[in-house]
Amino acid sequence: RIVLRLSEEMGEEQNKKLDALMAKNPKDQQALGEFLLNEVPGFEDMVNEEVANYKKELMDRMGAVNAAMPA
Length: 71
What we know:
The protein has helices at 2-9, 12-24, 29-39, 43-68. The chain is an all-alpha fold.
């Protein structure tokens, strides 16, 4: 979900920079984190929002499953 949202949020220039970074250092998680924090405005808020949405979706599904189970 976060990757999909990032692809929607990032522009062509940012995508090119990210591609170059990953080509040069594909396993450098710190560099990736720094890039996202510096290049994607509101990145942390976006991640928190996606996590909260996912948690809510899971809770809703669990509620529906529990409601469907016989007592």
